[in-house]
Amino acid sequence: MKKNLTISISLLFLFSLLFSCSEEEQQKKEVIRPVKVITTTTADYLSNKTFSATTKETKESSLSFRVGGPLIRLNAEEGQDIKKGNLIAEIDPRDFKINVQAKKARFIQAKAEKTRYEGLLAKGSIPQNEYDQKLAAYLIAKSEYEDAENALKDTKLYAPFNAIVSKKLVENYQEVAAKQPIASLLDFSAIEVKFTIPESFIRYFDYVTSFKVKLNAYPDVVFDATLKEVGARSEGATGFPVFLYLTTTKDMIKNTPVGSGMACQVTVEMDQRNTSRGDVILLPIYSVLQKGADKSPSVMVFDPAKKVVNKREVRLGQLVDKDKIQILGGLKSGELVVEYGANLLQDGQKARVLDFNPTASK
């Protein structure tokens, strides 16, 4: 009986010892955590961007006379540079001058009659209705005289704005009718280009230095452009509309006429003088740790050679698109950063990589 009890106690002690050793070995066994990582790349938001665009309706005007008659002067050739106020064409004014003289004589006579009848009315020598007839005749003569003078002025046609003659529609000495188009003028200073920039790009618009425009119809010609305005975001739109003025010359318009609705490409050139901007990395904000005695921001970087994660302090920039943050220092392109669960890891801890995003930049 005693013997059996002794054997049982010995076995129990042996099992306890073995279990204790196994537990210690298990505790000593290092935990390898699975991690999801992203590969860092430098953000390219400060590199030049190209957007699809279209030209807007330009200021084009068909010129015509308000009166008709034979042309005696035509200063309009296609492609010609016209300044505001320049004489474009003139109708023979001879008949209009004769008409002005006739209307003027009638007006002078009617005015004299009105003045005489005013005196007679004041003396009571005539009834009111006789004076009213003379007054009406005077007003009609005055209106006809003014119309004749205006018609004489309308025998000359002037450029309403600085422009280029896009079309010449008549020849000199030709008989033209009132409102018949004489020539078409194109205001080359008011050609607009419209395109849309994404919401994420608007914060970098202060770094824009210039705009270059290539029309699909003329791929070898590069137009400069100046900013007109950045519009408010339209309802249902995917970004902000941008409007440019196309900078053109007389030769450009003559050789590469631009119309409304033409497809083009706008290159937005960015300030590249500070090359450090090109080294900026964007990371999800939740992958950055804010812990430690000094609260220094850091990330966990996976070392594929040693299969460990290392804590790395980083220098932060601005928030981008609400869920990303600029990394201005501490990382370089091509490194593997733990995306989720970095706060559960220790510096130097073993880890294994799950499937990961190929890049983290934009």
TrEMBL record:
Record's GO cellular component terms: efflux pump complex
Sequence ranges assigned to domain Multidrug resistance protein MdtA-like barrel-sandwich hybrid in this UniProt record: 65-181
Domain of life, source organism: Bacteria
Keywords of this entry: Signal
Annotated SUPFAM superfamilies: HlyD-like secretion proteins (SSF111369)
Family of the protein in this entry: Belongs to the membrane fusion protein (MFP) (TC 8.A.1) family.
Protein name: Efflux RND transporter periplasmic adaptor subunit
Annotated organism of origin: Flammeovirga aprica JL-4
